[in-house]
Amino acid sequence: MENNISDQLKETLAEEEMHKNWIKVYRNPLNAAFYEKAFDRICSLLKPLRESRVLDVGCGTGAQSMRLARRGFQVMAIDFSETVLKRAEAEIRSSGLNDRITLRREDILSLTFGDGHFENLLCWGVLMHIADVDRAISEIIRVVKPGGRIVVSEGNMFSMQSLIIRGLKGALRIGKSRVVRSKEGLEFWESTPSGILLTRQSDMRWLVNKFVNCGCSLEHRFAGQFTELYSLVNSDTINWVIHKVNDLYFRYIRWPHPAYGNICIFRKL
Question: I want to staple 230 with a disulfide (CB 3.0 to 4.6 A). Which of 28, 68, 222, 239 is the partner?
């Protein structure tokens, strides 16, 4: 019994440490500026009705849920991790958005909501960590009503960043992850203190076709961040330059195919 408690504590601490590292890399002022622009564009394309409901799947610590709430949505924010939901609860409370965001523990592979329950759905950087992505996509489509929109953001395996890094790793024979090419994309399986972590760079053509074949139409596809190389660099100056490039690309070029971040908006037919 004591060993089980000790293992659970170690797993919880490892999960908290992983999320702290994620927050350090992605939740800083430079990234926040990008996310604000991205959600301005997304909401301008969705044109939500006042008090429109949105399901934020894999909400994490609630950053994107709060952006949606500030733009007029009523948000149901869900995640499988109790650890991050507790952190999200504290951050949402401090932001004063309790009345616009509801938190709930859910499994993306078996959502408890009825068919067509939500007008809109956000799935931001979540499918990349799901092994049974076919089932996850079927579930998120199921809970959106006909005519509703699904916003998906994923990493692109054919981006310039991905192609260059894979080429360098192959030439230098470096890399700790087990790499698998599946129909869904390029999968990196890595051992972490909290277990095996899957990170997938999506084959965006497969992803779009999957949604279309499941009864959706692609309304918009545009670039998110051109590169996430800032996550590998420990220099404030270089990071500023990378984010500046991302900002210019997002505002003026928008072509998704060479960009690492891809944002797709689907309409359920």
Answer: 239
262 burial class (0-12, 13-18, 19+ CB within 10 angstroms)?
A: buried
User: Domains along the chain?
Assistant: 2-156+204-268 (3.40.50.150)
| HSE, side-chain direction, 13 A CA sphere, residue 8 | 7
Over residues 256-262, the mean pLDDT reads 98
Give the angle subtended at the CA of 182 by the CAs of 179 and 186, to the nearest 5°: 45
Q: Are strands 261-268 and 144-155 parallel, antiparallel or unpaired?
A: antiparallel
Strand 118-124, strand 53-57: pairing: parallel
Q: Which of 216 and 169 is assigned the larger pLDDT?
A: 216
Q: Give me the sign of the Cα torsion angle 107, 110, 116, 121.
A: positive
pLDDT at 13: 43
Pairing status of strand 144-155 against strand 118-124: parallel
End-to-end CA distance of the chain: 51
